[in-house]
Amino acid sequence: MYSKPIENLIRAFSHLPGVGRRTAERYVFHLLKAGKKDPAELALAIKNLITTVKSCAICFDFSDRSPCAICADTKRNAKQICVVAESQDLQAIERTNMYTGRYHILRGLVETDALISDENTLKIPELVARAKSEGITEIILALNPDLQGETTALYLEKELKTTNPELTITRLARGLPMGSDLQYADEITLSSALKHRTGSN
Ligand SMILES: [Zn+2]
Predict the structure, then answer these.
(1) Backbone dihedral angles phi then psi of residue 106, each to the nearest 5 degrees
(2) Gap between the Cα atoms of 135 and 100, Å rounded
(3) Ligand 1 centre and the CA of 1: distance in Å?
(4) pTM greater than 0.70 (yes/no)
(5) Dihedrals φ, ψ of 57, to 5°?
(6) How far is the CA of 88 from the centre of ligand 1 (A)?
(7) What is the 8-class DSSP label of residue 164?
(8) pLDDT tens, 29-42?
(9) Phi-psi region for residue 136, left (φ > 0), alpha (ψ -120 to 50) or beta?
């Protein structure tokens, strides 16, 4: 057993996605061997992250201000919402320079085998409320082309149509490979999927 401070940081790192105990150990000993500067920078960056980054009250993206820069930008189309699962997906769509509307971050996807009550942590009620209160004309569902993305899209279409039958709901065009992750899609594929999006009405 390592001494307590070492063990504590190994545990903290091993909670990160994709990091097992061995990798966590490598990180900790790398920091120990690096001297004081690197670990101090890391500690400060984490401290700033938790003290300055908040959730945008409108779109739920993580930002240092609320409303975030995109929601506060009056030049963007306030009648269009692009729905994504995570903040990284928003960044992927922004990189295409093809989209000028606003966003809504769900903070995850509907679990395919979960009951609807489990969706309480997702920002779905907030999306439905926005679609109504902001007079939205188009909702673009930009979700991963996999089973979970599909389940979420179908659920959202149903929820949104129930409260607002007039709403145009579109989806990214096929072309994104099935099972792929939106945030890793290249800009050309994603641009094309956005441009050729298809609607249910
Ligand atoms: Zn925002």
Answers:
(1) -75, -25
(2) 17
(3) 45
(4) yes
(5) -70, -15
(6) 14
(7) -
(8) 999 999 888 899 99
(9) beta
